[in-house]
Amino acid sequence: MKDIYPGFPVQRLRRLREKAVLRQMVRENHLTPDDLIYPLFVIPGENRTNPVSSMPGVSQLSIDLLVEEAIDAYKVGVKAVEVFGIPPHKDEVASGAYDPNGIVQDAVRTLKKACPELYVITDVCLCQFTNHGHCGIVEEGKILNDPSLDYLAKTALSHAEAGADMVAPSDMMDGRVAAIRQALDKGGYEHIPIMSYSAKYASSFYGPFREAAESAPLWGDRRTYQMDAGNSEEAIRETALDIQEGADIVMVKPGMAYMDIVRRLKDNFGLPVAVYNVSGEYAMVKAAAEKGWINEQRIVLELLLSFKRAGADLIITYHAKDAVRWLKEQA
Length: 331
Ligand code: PBG
Description:
This protein has twelve helices and twelve strands. By secondary structure, it is an alpha/beta fold. It has a single domain (32-330), classed as TIM Barrel. Strand 10 (249-253), helix 9 and strand 11 (273-277) form a beta-alpha-beta unit. The longest helix has 17 residues, at 146-162. It starts with 19 loop residues before the first helix and ends with a helix. It binds ligand PBG. Ligand PBG binds at residues 123, 125, 127, 135, 170, 206, 209-210, 215, 222, 278-279.
């Protein structure tokens, strides 16, 4: 036995695993409610709940019910939400995105009034607001970069004016972080941070979200602006640029299949890294759990902890409310 490998039996890694207390004490990474951001979908009207069929447990909510859900989540221990808006009308220039009385702006104002302590982040994008479903302004079948920047900047500024605590651009146009930073600073919102979806991949994992946000592109796809799944070096370039442009927090999206990118960003830059545990990942877990094939609670908590281990500081997840409840039950 002594010669099985050098060090044995002096080194026995199982010693630290024997007792639960010690396992807890030597655990390197922890998941806490502070890490989680809960996405919410807001629709026009009153007293309306639209369940998203591919995301069991997630519904589009009118502002009144959104506030109820947010307050409920806050009471459970969720500290931050990210708001996605579905406007009553869509057009070529995404008017609803930067309308001071648009769906997101109204929702933010109402949320902050009802629950000032809740940290409210807004998704800044045009795709829910354009009639073609692309994240920028379109001309002759092309998604134009520079003309889109003004619209994105206006959108972010209008969110800040409505009371958003942080803005999160998810469009993937070049230069949008700089454009947004400039607009915020000019408007007197130099204190509002930008969480940039820096390494956002063109992914099939967004399928259910596009039902939830009614934002699927009418034609084509997002491959001319979102990143190619095969690329890793490019994620570094994207993120370095975003930081140079003024991003305060950088994000990797999707999550599960992109944990290597989370680790690379964490190791390369000194900034907080967020990860988006996207709709398709949520749908897979929910479907398998419904079938009784996996233990939902354990899978979710393991998954979220693994994001922390990969290097994420913040996790945007539809599981947030459940996860916080489970964490509290365990404590
Ligand atoms: C909008 C946006 C998307 C998601 C967040 N913001 C969809 C997309 O880029 O098509 C996806 C979120 C999810 O799948 O949970 N641009």
